[in-house]
Amino acid sequence: MGNDIPTAGNPHWRSPAHLGLIYRGRIPHGSTAIVGPLRALLSLLRLWRQRDRDRALLARFDSRMLRDIGITPADVMREINRPFWRQ
């Protein structure tokens, strides 16, 4: 009877890292198809959140501040009423 237990000396044996299993905190190889779109989604959510913050800050500017940056109150109203998902 042969030895059916895989060992490191066996060229057909693969470590957990080779099999794509979670090993020392690394992401499994099979999940790379998920990671890319997930990163893109998180990036989009950050962008939307930043737009919302910027528009809220713009809404607090007084007329002197608006003149300093060259924006009219009508420009501000148009910008702050725009949905966060629109540029």
Termini separation = 70 Å
Tally of separate helices: 3
Number of strands: 0
The stretches of 5 or more residues where confidence is low (pLDDT under 50) are none
Q: What's the pLDDT, averaged over the residues?
A: 79
Helix percent reads 40-55%
Radius of gyration: 27 Å
Class from secondary-structure proportions: mainly alpha
What's the SSE pattern?
HHH
* Global geometry: rod-shaped
Strand content: under 5%
Could you give a short account of the major beta sheet? Answer: none
Polypeptide structure, described:
The protein is mostly helical and 87 residues long. It has a domain at 31-80. It is 49% helix and 0% strand. Helix 1 (32-59) runs antiparallel to helix 3.
SSE layout and pairing:
Blueprint: H1 32-59, H2 63-69, H3 73-80
List keywords for this structure.
single chain; 87 residues; mainly alpha; 3 helices; 49% helix
Describe, in short, the structure shown.
With 87 residues, this protein is mainly alpha-helical. The protein contains 3 helices and no strands. Helix content is 49%, strand content 0%.
